[in-house]
Amino acid sequence: MSRRFVNLMVDRIISHRAASTLHLINPWRCFYPTTTQASAAANNKTIITEDAHLPRAAISFYEPCSQDVLCDIRFMSLGRSSNDIISMDHEGNTFLYDAAARAVRVLPMPHAPKLSPVSLTVGDGLYLLNGDPGQQEDHPFEALIHCGPSANPIDDRSDEKWYWRSLPPPPCAFDYEDDNERYRRRGYEIGAYTVVGDSQIWISTEGGGTFSRADYGARLLRCSAYSVIGAGGGDRKTQLVASVSCVGWAAGVLKIRWGPAHPGPPVASPLTFSFNTTSGVWSKAGEWALPFSGRVEYAPEHGLWFGFSSQGKHFAACDLGAVSATRPPVLLKMWDELAPPLPKRWVMVSSYLLPLDGGKFCIPRIFDMAGEGWCREKNGNDFMRVDGFAVFTGVEVERGSRGALRMIKHMSRRYSFGCRMARVV
Description:
By secondary structure, the chain is mostly beta strands. It contains 2 helices and 32 strands.
């Protein structure tokens, strides 16, 4: 079952206090009643992009600090079928917003606050991994586990509870000691993720290797994609996977896969590590990385994974079920749901993907509006921001008579929120 709404969070100042307001966007308003109508509109080149009114805020979350102190709140979804939201501040204070009840519940604090975490829902757990994982004692990887209330009709007391479970960080996040000096990985940034089936998590990066004392600087690590692929049942294993490859030099030293035996920089090689959520053990899955950036979603109607390509952020499809240690994933198809070229003053900030029923997807993209006279070719990313808005687009993916994938665009709706920051949860 898909969500009724898409959660759009907008940063604001309310009564001189920093806050984030939640706006519930109905994704089904981006679709024609039938696929035939959508196809006819596409063939006649009458694709609709209409300006829509931003709904009133359902709730406001005030940041715990004053405007001159940096203390952001992180928001995480409890899954693709739920509009409930988990919020966590810089100290780890955690709350649950129950969308149906329009109520807020205090939850236990994690073992340690999470800094720019990625979050994935697997079964009854919300898994959070720091964007820059550290040592085990720093608790960079934790799961918020939910135990539902008792089914005993005689006992009217609720024994529903939530608790945090600390998990081991990926191997590439460990600190290493050499000559009584400590060297740790820096610049490790997770960039894409997905849940597949009910059980496995994959995380891909663009960096890797093991630090040691040498005459070279350390490579920076950058995560580009992560995903969950799964054990729907039986005795199939549950694994979380992270891919790594080296992408730059920094102060420090490294020791990774080397090329021919001669002095010079090491040869970068993507790696994928696997975490088994049942045994809690990391292992190497393959020398490849997922070709995605951002959240990757599974569509059971097609048996494929959908997300945004690591190059160009195109809407794309891939068959992760065909992947093995020696067979890396490849994109099957890429599309542009917003007909290029985009208006010159539109500057894309971020992209999100929400799977709906029947092979339909809602694609929200956040844009800045640059000032008059801005030219990307001349000014690059240096521009004056005069407005901000989100474009929600409804698309449908179907297979043709020969099995080829085809994207059908429905409608796009634009929601303006002024010169503010926004994100989809």
